[in-house]
Design brief:
This protein is an alpha/beta fold. The protein has one domain: TIM Barrel (Alpha-Beta Barrel). The chain is about 35% helix and about 15% strand. The protein contains 9 helices and 11 strands. Strands 1, 2, 3, 4, 5, 8, 9, 10 and 11 form a 9-stranded parallel beta sheet that branches. It has a two-stranded antiparallel ribbon with strand order 6-7. Helix 2 links the parallel strand 2 and strand 3. Helix 2 packs parallel to helix 3. The two termini are about 10 Å apart.
């Protein structure tokens, strides 16, 4: 099982190019960053964190941490990371694909794929923040049909010399666009979803990879089994689904948890680094590096 690390990639964290160097030097397989273009200020009367003013998360059970409104652009950051590394894989966890026009996104991803020499993993999600996506002209109720169509449009631009697309949400006439990704199918595309019945169904129907939020390793193991069963029911091969356990919890993960992930057949574990000064981030990186041995 590969081990990657996740950074909230704020302007007050360890710079991503410096973090990428440190992660590669310590033997990590991959480095992952999130995306929010912005966090809308809560409207009058909405619950807010009394200390930070942040809104509730999508589950409605806790307030978002302040770092969510400080997330840097993922593609610019990962390009900087690619430029100073040679082996480290680089991923979005996740890119909110509905908040881009597919023509723009196809070029950004293909360019990063080229700069990284094929080391980019395109983690995508449909989003959860209704107001954020509304600012981009997307109705939350349509977010999954939008995701599927926008991804299809992106892949059309990657694969065809003169690409055109006519869908419900995206339309463009025959166009040239370069660069193309190194592979005609583009970089690996993996779905990030909440571990809900709806999320698991999307993975079973459409996912080639899954980034389940992993707060309880035993619950996630049951969820993976559920996705595999649903895949078999619709004629898809579960062996082709690459699962990357995403540990968003701030708590340090231990060797026993990683051993459980390995035993359940996960391809990768992605471990969160703290939003902290460089010294604290590197200390956590060193802790996790010892688990690689």
């Amino acid at each position: 099982m590969h081990i990657g690390v996740f950074s909230f990639n704020t302007e007050y964290s360890l710079r991503l190019d410096d973090l990428a160097r440190a992660a590669e030097e310590r033997g990590f397989e991959s480095l992952w960053v999130p995306e929010h273009t912005h966090i809308p200020v809560p409207r009058p009367g909405e619950p807010t964190d009394p200390l930070t003013g942040m809104p509730l998360a999508g589950t409605g059970t806790f307030f978002l941490a302040e770092e969510y409104r400080h997330i840097s652009d993922p593609f610019t950051s990962l390009a900087a990371a690619a430029a100073v590394t040679t082996r480290l894989r680089l991923g979005t966890c996740v890119c909110l694909i509905n908040q881009y026009h597919p023509i723009t996104l196809a070029k950004q991803v293909a360019t990063l794929d080229r700069i990284s020499q094929g080391r980019f993993i395109f983690g995508i999600g449909a989003g959860w923040h209704a107001v954020e996506m509304a600012h981009h002209g997307v109705d939350r109720a349509q977010r999954w049909p939008q995701l599927r169509e926008r991804l299809a449009a992106v892949r059309t631009l990657w694969a065809q010399e003169q690409a055109s697309f006519a869908g419900e949400f995206v339309r463009f006439e025959a166009s040239w666009q370069y660069p193309k990704p190194l592979e005609s199918a583009g970089p690996p595309v993996v779905l990030g979803t909440l571990d809900t019945a709806f999320g698991r169904r999307q993975v079973a129907l459409y996912g080639d990879g899954w980034l389940p939020l992993t707060f309880d390793i035993h619950e996630t193991q049951r969820s993976i089994a559920d996705v595999h069963a649903q895949m078999r029911a619709v004629g898809r091969d579960p062996a082709r689904l690459e699962v990357s356990l995403f540990f968003l919890n701030e708590a340090l993960q231990d060797a026993a948890t990683l051993a459980q992930g390995r035993a359940m057949g996960a391809a990768r574990a992605i471990l969160r680094l703290p939003v902290a000064p460089a010294s604290a981030t590197l200390k956590t990186l060193d802790h996790y590096a010892r688990l690689l041995l």
